[in-house]
Structures are given as C-alpha cells and as structure tokens.
Amino acid sequence: MKRTKINLLIKLEKSPGNVLVKGWVRTRRGSKGFSFMEINDGSCLKNIQVIATGDLKNYHDIETITTGSSVSVAGKLAESPGKGQKWEIQAENLEIINLAPESYPLQKKRHSDEFLRTIAHLRPRTNKYGAAFRLRSEMAFAIHKFYREKGFRYLTTPLITGSDCEGAGEMFRVTSLDPEKVKEQGEMDFTMDFFGQESNLTVSGQLSAEMFALALGDVYTFGPTFRAENSNTSRHVAEFWMLEPEMAFCDLKENMDHGEELVKYLTRHAMAECSEDMALFSNFVDKSLSKRIDTILNSEFGRISYGEAIEILKKSKKKFDFKVKYGIDLQSEHERFLAEEYYKKPVFLTDYPKGIKPFYMRMNDDGKTVAAVDLLVPGIGELIGGSQREERLDILEKRMNEMNLPMDDYWWYLDSRRFGSAPHSGFGLGFERFLMMITGISNIRDVIPFPRTPGRIDF
RNA sequence: UCCCCAGUAGCUCAGUUGGCAGAGCAAUUGGCUGUUAACCAAUGGGUCCGCGGUUCAAGUCCGUGCUGGGGAGCCA
After folding, report:
1. What are the Cα distances from residue A127, in Å, to A8, A119, A134, A283?
2. What pLDDT, on a 0 to 100 scale, did the predictor assign at position A184?
3. Residues A45 and A143 in one domain
C-alpha cells in the first residue's frame, strides 16, 4: 500500500477504507488493553489519531512507544467517535521504525524559543517551527510564482565576489591560502590566493543584477547573502536570504508600486495557502498579527520623502534619545515612530540626503538628495531598501570620485552607462524579515533553519 | 562593540536576613476498556554556569570569565 500524507488524509470527505501513514509520535495515551497515539508527518500542522488495541500481535511493544518515535501505521480510516478530530486510524498493522529513548528532548508541552534554539535540529518537529518552515518554503515558491507571472527572469548572481568595497557592511573573506604559511610570511599575499586577488562573500547581488536588467529587462535574484557585522540583535544574522528585483525603464515611483504589489501578493498567498499555519501564529505567537496582516492587505502604504519625515518627527511631541535634524540617518526610534505610531501601516521613505546613501543612487534635480527608498514596517523596521540607479555616466563618475571609489574596479559597471544606458530601479527585501512580519515571530533566528550569528555556527 | 537583565533537576521556575536543595511538568514503574498537553499512585533525578575571594558557614555577598535574553549601533 502507498503511504498517504496526513494533510491529504484529514481533508477526505469519505473514507477510502485502509490507509498507510508514516510519521512521528507526538503523544501516546495508554489504558489497559488499548493506546491512543497522535501521529505527525510534517505535511501539516494537524496530527492523525491512531488507536491500537490489545489484539495486535505486537501490542506489548506498542505499549513502549514514546514521544518522538517513528512509526508506520496501516489500518482503517474511520470516523472518530471521540471529540476533537473527524478521522482516526484503527491500526491493523503498527510497525515501530525507531523507538526514541527517554532522553528525547521535546516534551508534549510548550518549550521556550531559547531552549529550542539549542536543539535547532529537532525544533522543526514542534508545531510552531513546523509551521514556520512550511511557510518559509511556501513563500520562496510564491516569490518565483509572482515573478514568473510578471515576466521577470530569475538570475543567480555569484556568492563569491572580487569587489571589496560594495559599501554594505563588513564582508567575510574567502581564501584558500594556508593559515600556517600566512603566519610564516607575516601577511596575506593575495596574488598567491585562489583568484589572484582579495575576494569575499557577497553582500548583495545588485550590481550584477543591474547588468542583467539592462539586457533581459526585468530580473530578480533570490539567494543567500553574507554580512560579517558583529550585530547582536533579534533582526540580524550573518547569513540570510535576500530578494532583489531589478527593473529596466523603471523609476522610483514604479519601484515603490512594485514593492507594494509584491508584499501584498506574498501576504495574500500566505493567507490563502497556509491558512492553518497562519492561524497558529495569530492564536499563539502574536495576538496582533491578524490586524497587521489586514493592514498590509487593505491599506495603501504611506509614501513620504525624507524631508517630510523629518518635519513629522520634529512636530511630534515625542521625546527621542537622538535629536531630529535634517541630514541625520534615521534611528530605530524614529523609524518605529513613523511606522508604528504615526502611520500605523507600512510606509515608504524616499529622497534621502546623498551623504548617507551609496554612490549608485540616482541624484535628484535638487543636487542634494538621491532617489532612495526604504519601506518601514511596524514591528520590523526596514523591510525593503532600494533606489532608482544613477544611469548618467558623468554624474555617476563624479559621485564615485567624491566618495573615493576605485573607478578601475568598476569598469564593467560603468560600461553599462556607456553603452545604451537606461533608467532602472530595484531594491532588496530581507526574506527572513518578511517572514517575521507575517508570522509575528519576533527573533530572526527562529525563521531560518540554522541561524548563523556572531560566535555561533552550530549545526 | 556598548547598556540592562538572567544562568538552580530533562523543561519552566521558586529559593526569605548567608544556616539541611524545592515545586509543577517530563521521565521510570504500577493501575485504569474511548483518550484529547488523558487520568490516579509510587519512584528516581542536582558540577546551584566556570574560576577566584570574603566567611565558622555561600545557590545567596564580592571580583572575573563564559553563555543566553532584551535594547542600541550597523543593516535586509
């Protein structure tokens, strides 16, 4: 008999008679002569109840089944006379695949997130983490679906990069040099290294994506990204996934339209395809989740310039630790006030002063601000960061000079402005931060399978 | 990296003024003929985070290190 997954089984209207289920025992309740078991196979949140009676030939062994054990159950799918479930399996053949010893760390009760992080290899067997990682999978699929429907091309950009000055934070060095020899020589000779020059793990695929947007039109990258920052917060990890769309013939407004459409599409997809898991999050993880999802789906995101934001912050009676002044980079407290208290919904901030933004952002006509855009979201902070790119060669070169960037390293990037340059825009969306937003899970380490943070690379 | 808080049984946590190491859940064993984080009873279980110090006596006080959490900076 072929195995049926539990997500299909529990949806059945009529019993097909006998079924075969394989999974892990969440709990066993024994009485004299029979046992109830809850089996979960990871296909969905729900367990299937199995009843095993004393007339089974291996019933003596069945009585020893512990939480966490793996089993294979064949039997009749019957309507359950008990409350709480429609179906149950009346076991006719129950095979113990592996008995979990008493040291199995997951109990049939709530565990703290901190404890579960220490057993990250087992935590997907819990309701909450199972739901989180099913949703993560579904959201990755939804990203590809969204872009395919819109005629975008999926681009995979290199994870190892030679440019050491992308300006998006500390980078991880990639080298094949022998540490012992480096110690003898007293310094690293990069000409002897694998690539003949210094190389690092990427902090963004954007520059590569721009080249392909100016060839294929609309592209997106979706893959891992690395930051060697010594960040110890609930919103940062050293290895995370980022979605980066890049669109030719697209200005800042269209860039925002795209970001808003994307966030709404993915959120709608989560509600439609993962309703059961989403219900768990709003019932047990974050009581305000339903309201936030509703706001994301049904409100128009705010859109204001940096200058307007500064005015709003100044006029507010709120006391900030950092004084608000035109030209400063906005602090967390400022961003939170704008998204959580003033607008109470996601809000785009545009047109930042050029001094606090990177070289590739397009200079506005005022000569002081650039066509940058950040999307601030209640509870998360910055979800999206992007811009319209500077497509005018002379202005781009001038900016790079001002910022002392080595022009030679960027010869290929500048070529794109030399040969058929065109307006284009794009942004980066932090995949884990998006997952935090739609699950209400408050620590980024709990939405990524095996988190990498300063001082920790377990599993 | 900085600020604040915490570390006691497998888990969650209590532990008074410095004076015998505790609870609930879990586990183990037994009971129970339809359970729902089953129920009832019994039993076992400790490097009180590490190191050093004060003291007749330290889980408790002091110093230091490590780990975890919250916040800040950096950013996705």
Report:
1. 18, 15, 11, 12
2. 82
3. no
Q: How far is the CA of A114 from the C1' of B61 (A)?
A: 30
As ranges, strand B nucleotides with an atom below 7 A of a protein CB are 1-2, 10-13, 25-28, 31-39, 67-76
What is the span of the domain harbouring residue A335?
Answer: 123-168+203-446
> Does the residue A179 lie in any domain?
no
The chain-wide mean pLDDT, for chain A, equals: 92
Whether residues A31 and A137 share a domain: the answer is: no
- Residue A117 counted as domain residue: no
Q: How many CB atoms lie within 10 A of CB A250?
A: 22
Average pLDDT over residues A339-354: 94
pLDDT surpasses 60 at A83: yes
Cβ-based neighbours of A183, under 8 Å, separated by 6 or more: none
What number is the ipTM of this complex? 0.89
Going through A280-343 in order, the beta strands assigned E by DSSP cover 302-305
Put residue A12 in one of left, alpha, beta given phi > 0 → left and psi -120 to 50 → alpha.
beta
Residue A371 lies in a domain: yes
Domain stop point among A65, A98, A131 = A98
A358 near A163, Cβ under 8 Å? no
Q: What is the pLDDT of residues A226-284, one digit of tens each?
A: 998 888 889 999 999 999 999 999 999 999 999 999 999 999 999 999 999 999 999 99
Do A238 and A300 fall within a single domain? Answer: yes
Q: How far is the CA of A306 from the C1' of B62 (A)?
A: 51
Number of domain units in chain A = 2
Query: Same domain for A163 and A312?
Result: yes
Same domain? For A89 and A141 the reply is: no
pLDDT of residue A364: 95
Strands (E), A110-238: 153-154, 160-161, 173-174, 199-201, 218-226
User: What CA–CA distance (Å, rounded) separates A367 from A96?
Assistant: 72
Burial A411-437 (b: 16+ CB within 10 A, else e): eebbebbeeebebbbbbbbbbbbbbbb
Distance A288 CA to B63 C1' (A): 45
